[in-house]
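Would you be willing to look carefully at the protein I have copied below?

:::
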Amino acid sequence: MRALARQISDVSRVRGDFVLRSGRTATEYFDKYKFEAEPALLDAIAGRLAALVPPGTEVLAGLEMGGIAVVTALGRHTGLPCAFVRKQAKPYGTARLAEGADVSGRQVLVVEDVVTSGGQIVISTGQLRDLGARVDAAVCVIDREEGGATALAAAGIALHALFTRGDLDAA
């Protein structure tokens, strides 16, 4: 695990001035597209992430956009069907919020790449619940340890992280 943490950190950690989705600013950023774009690394991540999938999970739901690559790789390791969750339903075609596997009446696990405040998971989980999904957990590759797990717990969502920022710092 330590070697995988080191590899993720080496590939994706960048320094500079960044505005995060939460609106916060940071001098360090985990560019998830860097580890998602490396097939062997993404496969290794998904293989380890599979152990964090709670028993009884029926559908994996990846959040647009970064969670899509992770959920697809994770689905390969677990054999579970995947749903691809948009930030908002598109106004054309199927006009669905969640594409792929049906989530209604099913136990759904939200899959995300990096969690900071947890805001998008809370929003998307609410939308999935409105569609009839049962959601009480989420998994992510990296928890930046900036309040996301607490915010998710307040919304009835347990966060299971493959790595925390502290894990990556230690690696």
In short: Residues 66-78 form the longest helix (13 residues). The radius of gyration is 15 Å. The chain has seven helices and eight strands.
